[in-house]
Write the structure tokens for this entry.
Amino acid sequence: MIRCTMYVDGVMREDIPLAEISEIIPDPKNQVWLDLEGESVDQIALLREEFGFHELSLEDCFKAGQRAKIDEYPGYYFLVFYSPALRSDDGDIDAHELHCFVGSNYVVTTHRHPMPALRLAHQRWSQNPAMLNQGVGFLVYTIMDAIIDEYFPLLDHLNDSIEALEDRVLDGDPEATLKEIFRLKKNLLFARRILAPKRDIFNILARRDQPLFSPQTQFYLRDVYDHLIRLLEQVDTQRDMVASLREASISMISNRLNSVMKTLTVIATVLMTLSLIAGIYGMNFDFMPELHWHWGYPAVLGMMAVSGIAMVSYFRRRKWF
């Protein structure tokens, strides 16, 4: 899908022929947003022909799996950004890669998957006349702000999962929660890996010596930067909570194992004493008066019972089980 939107002389147009973009951009009064979904070879050729982008940025645009970054080229910036998503099959965090070319009066976005944040940004950009007067810098802010805001409900969902796991661990089911704990740890590590590099992006975009964006737009970019810092702090806090939860689960499993081992040790000790008595009177010596005593068998059973009860009482007083 290809969507080309242009703002010129207070009028928003979406019927721009793609072949005329190279003629429209030189006029600084024109503001163009070209959104390409799919990133095909033909689209890359279109960017090369109409915008004259550097081959290295086009190569990064065509190859997925780039690290979130910002590269400066003559006349424009190339950004790699990630929009979050929640997989419906297993509930894990996923991320869709967004490539963004930012010039003095144009923005080009390319992505392989549909992005609700871009639809929201396009709606805000087309319906707010005051925003149009701020230039494409405000459009970049709108796109980045919409993407960053998508992370908040995602982290809230992870926080709810952590709280539910805490209740399950405290209810005495730590073994069943370990797998879920490690899944949450993996998701939080992935979230931090795609969020942390964005700090460098906003540090560059919000610089005072930034030639492409006005000082007023940089204030808005710093606001998005503050939201990003909040997200990173929230991720770090949740990672600490998951780490504490993992340690608590392992401790409870270890304590439960120790309790079982103590109980088995007590049982083995009692049975060992009874086996000792049975072993002594099970020896086939001729000169053992108790073997021929009429009350020998009940007496030995009584001695075994008294010994067992005494040992169990001793261990219970010591709170061994």
Q: What stands out?
A: The chain is about 60% helix and 15% strand. The chain has a mean pLDDT of 82.
